[in-house]
Amino acid sequence: MKIVIPGGSGHVGSVLARAFHGRGDEVVVLSRTSTDALPWRVVKWDGERLQAWADEFEGADAVINLAGQSVNCRYTAENRRIIIDSRVKSTAVVGQAIAQTTNAPRVWLQASTATLYAHRFDAPNDEATGIIGGSEPNAPDTWRFSIDVVKKWERELNAAATPNTRKVLMRSAIVMTPDADGPFDMLLRLVRFGLGGQFGDGKEFVSWIHDRDFVRTVDWLLQHDELAGPVNLAAPNPLTNSEFMREIRTAWGIPFGLPASKWMLELGAFVLRSETELMLKSRRVVPAKLLQSGFAFQFPTWAEAAQDLCSRWRKRQLVSAALSKQ
To answer: Which pTM was predicted?
Structure first.
């Protein structure tokens, strides 16, 4: 199978490219920076204009568009513009590239995010009954901005004229891997230094997905033609952030972690040039469509996922240490 991954040079794209290349698929990553250092092909693009890269779509089996500037930054006016443009323009040009093919890709998986759903505690958000966020009382402007980004992102996919290509919106929760500088690595760093207590009041729900289940869900979407439109990519058991952090501490073998109050998180986010939405917004998302289609999660609960991720993180450190001595 030939799989083209626009924006596939980032954290999540590397997870998918490694997995699909490892099983023998032809993987082509579209990136703003070209390189010959990877085992799959990397083709340069700018994410805005139709150029020679569009030829890769001809006869491809699937397109997985992950393009978009990182949201791990302060939401200044300039960063907001870049975040929106990088998503909307890249999605538009991917649609144009697919539309001009003679032999169109069978499926287009488009990155989206579970951030779209409302901050809530009363019930989980699924694809059919989930509440779209943005109108919650006292919701910060940054939360509303994130939701506006997702709406524009998804609107661009829906507007694309690709009648011969099935389109799926992947509303993904946080993808947890043991890789360096990923979300789990950053959370584990807090735990290792004794700072891995609850965030805020600890009641906010955390939705997540183990990296191996993320790869499996993406592959499931590629294979199951009945799945189209929005699909939540999240483990079926979201939990409060106090429970979430406790399970990481348990998996690592540390019984206690200092909690972080809201003002501490705000100060830390300011210093790190980031936002507190990841830690203070309650994301209670469930994968109804995947479960109804028969998908079975390898890591349905955070306790077993955290154990696996900690174990793999330790192994990665040992390998890195051994290589550094050579």
So the answer is: 0.93
Has residue 146 got a pLDDT over 50?
yes
Please answer whether residues 57 and 63 qualify as being in contact, where contact means their C-beta atoms are separated by less than 8 angstroms.
yes
Three-point CA angle 215, 218, 221, nearest 5°:
150
Q: What angle do CA 296, 298, 301 make, to 5 degrees?
A: 100
CB atoms within 10 A of CB 152: 14
Strand 205-206 vs strand 239-240: parallel, antiparallel, or unpaired?
A: antiparallel
What are the pLDDT digits (tens) for 280-306?
678 899 999 999 999 999 999 999 999
Residue with tokens 């997995």: 19
Cα-to-chain-centroid distance, residue 1: 23
Domains along the chain? Answer: 2-316 (3.40.50.720)
Q: 212-217, long-range: CB within 8 Å, 24+ apart, which pairs?
A: 212/298, 212/299, 213/297, 213/298, 213/299, 214/12, 214/15, 214/16, 214/172, 214/175, 215/15, 215/16, 215/19, 216/295, 216/298, 217/287, 217/290, 217/295
Per DSSP, helices labelled H in 169-225 are 183-192, 211-223
User: Is there a contact between 136 and 90 (Cβ–Cβ < 8 Å)?
Assistant: no
Distance (Å, whole) CA 43 – CA 255: 47
Q: Which amino acid is at 47?
A: G
CA atoms within 13 A on the CB side of 265: 19
Q: Is 5 helix (H, G, I), strand (E, B) or coil?
A: strand
